[in-house]
Amino acid sequence: MTRTDILMTGRMLPSVVEALNERFTLHRMWEAPDRDAFLREIGPRIRGIATSTMTGRADAAFLEYFPKLEIIASFGVGYDNVDAHEAARRGILVTNTPDVLNDEVADLTIGLLIATLRRIPQADRYLRDGKWLEAPFPLSPSLRSRKVGIVGLGRIGKAIARRLEGFGVEIVYHGRTRQENAPYAYHGSLVDMAQAVDVLIAITPGGAGTRHMIDGEVLKALGPSGVLINVARGSVVDEQALIEALREGTILAAGLDVFEDEPRVPQALIDMDNVVLLPHIASGSVHTRKAMGQLVVDNLVSWFSGKGPLTPVPETPYRQGAL
Ligand code: NAP
Ligand code: 8YV
Question: Which of 174, 181, 185, 236 could be 232's S-S partner, Cβ–Cβ 3.0 to 4.6 Å?
Answer without folding.
Answer: 236
